Amino acid sequence: MKNIRAKVNPRLLQKADRLFTGSLRGRIVELLQNARRADAGEVVITNKDGWVTVRDNGKGLVDFASLLDLGGSGWGDATELSEDPAGVGVFCLAPRKVCIRSKGKFVEFGPEGWAGKAVEVQDDPEPVEGTEICFQDEQWTKESVEPNAVFTGLKVTVDGKVCRSEKFVSSTAVHLKDLGCRVEVTRGCDLNDWHSMIRRNCDFGNVLVNFHGQTITFTTQPVSDRSLFFLVDLTGEPTDIRLMLPARTRLVENEAFERIKSALEIEAYRFYQRQGKHSLYYDEYLRGKELGVKLPEAEPTFQVGLLRGDDLEPIEIGKPEKLPLSKCYRLGEKLRDWVLPHSANVHLLAALGKHGQPFVPVDICPRYDGYSWAKLPTIDKVKIKTGKVIHRQYLWGKELACVDSLRIEASCSDGKQFFSNVCMAEQLADKNGKVKWAPDEVLITPEARKQMDTQQIWFHLGGYNEDGDMYDTQDYQFQQELDVFWQEVLGPDEPLRAEIMETLRGVSGSWKKVVVSCEGLVTVYLVDGTEKTIKPPAEVLAAP
Predict the structure, then answer these.
(1) What is the pLDDT of residue 524?
(2) Sign of the alpha-carbon torsion through 461, 466, 469, 472
(3) Where are the domains of the chain?
């Protein structure tokens, strides 16, 4: 039986320039990581004539051969346990010509050296402290280096300009020794500019991981609150948290990855515990208790009124400032099956009706059910009573009917009833009295012409259609169609009469009658018995 074993084919070296962090950011990260692992405290970067020089004050190279040992990192056991270096560091520079100096030795090589040709290590006539790497590349500016240096703990200088150095987490971060990291939970609005830059560069995850200066992100949602962000800072202790090779831009989804996510869930609940308040759903509140984190009840979270529009806002409902939430009403569970028609009519009853006591419906997400504040009296029955139909017209996908009277009635679980005449409602039943799943008809009274904005009527007929023309075009088109509807209801001369009355608002003094002749002479008869004559300009009178 033939045995086989894994091996690295020498041809792989010929493809090094395409395999390992071929981006500028990748090269910056790799060389800064190498300097930090060599116990450097400072890195100086200079640019001159198309060459970049990176010099650090670390402990230097013990074995030059490790530079070109693909997969052999040459780092000690402690570094292996805490960082899992891949041994591909300087290969990020392939196939460039490179000169490396350290501890009185130097080596120069180009494409052939990267491909496996022997390279001679020579004595350095001008020894340097630490390690110096010089290579051809595009300019390493402070702007390109700084985002990759800010969390390394190194003092990094680019052409004489010092890069910012920041702590990745604050002193309040929680130390998870078994995972070799510190964790901090914060709000998105509290992230600093550097954290925000990391998100923009790394797919906008809500978990930011600082792997000793190399920063990556991933996404996890242990709670529904999308404003939470998590900072994970590797400490240098042994850890099984690993970066995916060769790009090292993602975490390996191993057991340690799952343990991190579990730890972040617990820390999220502890964050709310420290805050002393939250707006988590009730099932999340129970999950916190299950994890051993006791929380207070969520802050009351509700919306006054039952309707909201993306582009059009229905008529609003006001809640008296001193009215407690316990005196408001929720839509009953049986009515939630047909949310739109019932919620619309309850909303209109509260907004347009007249009541002797406060009637304020509120919308509370069912996922809050279980909290004491969410248990409110409910609206269990809604019906409308209509008068004679004056005019009916198909408009904007539904029928719009004008009736001479309209009344909405609501019965509540606390025994109270609310009813009032209103100028708008949605029809819930067809002509045979059978309830439909969605309203096909919107009812209005003539009073709606003065009491309702055009856009409020438009909202109940379906409003703006994203698949149609632009918003302004649809708005204008609906206004034209609605004007035609009102003309049919009130008579074709009503727009003219209304325009004349609007114009006469500008007449000074109290008047009881205005007479206009075909010649343009206007006579205003005032309440006090006098009259005022307004003549057209002389040139108009003189015209043949």
Answers:
(1) 87
(2) positive
(3) 10-162, 174-290, 303-490, 507-542
